[in-house]
Amino acid sequence: MKLVLDGEKIRSRDDLHKQMAAVLGFPEWYGGNLDALYDCLTDLMEEVNIHILHMSALKTTLGEYAERLLSVLKDAETLNLNIQVIID
User: Fold this and answer.
1) Is the dihedral of CA 57, 69, 32, 78 positive or negative?
2) At residue 88, does pLDDT exceed 90?
3) Residue 73's closest CA among 52, 45, 47?
4) Helix (H) or strand (E) holding 74
């Protein structure tokens, strides 16, 4: 499975989480926050490639939250070998 997060198209935290939940098939209880994101990512059983495009634009839009997001993605990648994070 492939998820592309384009920093030029994401307009809010809510937009980011809705896109991730829809593409990755997160459960109904997904809370739309970084803690819930980490929980769902570490539970994934299938291979997922997460491509982040235009990281600087994402940082402009989301501020420090973009850095925290990247940290969560990298932590989940370390724990769950099914996840690969690529930043272009």
Assistant:
1) positive
2) no
3) 52
4) helix 64-79
Task: Indicate the helix (H) or strand (E) that contains 58.
Answer: helix 55-62
Q: How many CB atoms lie within 10 A of CB 63?
A: 11
Residues in the chain: 88
48-80 residue pLDDT tens: 999 999 999 999 999 999 999 999 999 999 999
Report which DSSP code applies to 50: E
Please report, rounded to a whole number, the percentage of residues in the chain having pLDDT higher than 70: 100
pTM for this predicted structure: 0.91
Token digits for 6? 């384009």
Q: Does residue 13 contact residue 62 with C-beta atoms inside 8 Å?
A: yes
Q: Beta-carbon neighbour count of residue 41 at 10 Å?
A: 23
Q: Enumerate the β-bridge partners of residue 5.
A: 52
